[in-house]
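Lecture 7 notes: from sequence to structure.
We start with the chain below.
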Amino acid sequence: MIGHGTIHDHEGLEEITLKHGRHPEFHKTRISEEDESKGFTRFLRWHMDAALYNLCVPKVTALYGIKVPKGPLQTVRYDDGTGDELIVPLGTTAFVSGKTMFEILPREFKSVAVRARAKYAPHPFQWMRKWKVASTGLAMVTEGSEFASFDELPHWNEDKIKIYPFVCSTS
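Predicted structure tokens for the same chain:
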């Protein structure tokens, strides 16, 4: 369940208070408070809907909005140097196409992508909880203290760590 605020009597939960992240908490740099008050924001951060430890990546992601926030539109700044912006309603989730991303790669990078595999850290979301991201929300800002040590993580076993190919066939 994602959202922001206190929810009452939902799916067996009497009461739960949700706190949705905002770009100033995840980004290394932030939009000025003045611009934020004018409705400017950034893409929060890249994520995928998978635990990546002892659970397989889901084949399908569904997003169902029971109560969608109402309010003024926001202007998302891509912050990638292009000056591009996107006007969106509150609560918007951006999706990307891995197929398109692969198709636009130069041939030599496609060759690397089809052979590469990623070995995830145990409890990866706990491991990277101190991450700060670049202004685009797509890349991590590396400073040397981003990761929790494996000793700080909940108990884990090597055989439950997931390794996935960068590129998967859908056939």
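Points to note: The chain has a mean pLDDT of 86. The helical segments are 23-26, 33-37, 98-103, 107-115, 124-127.
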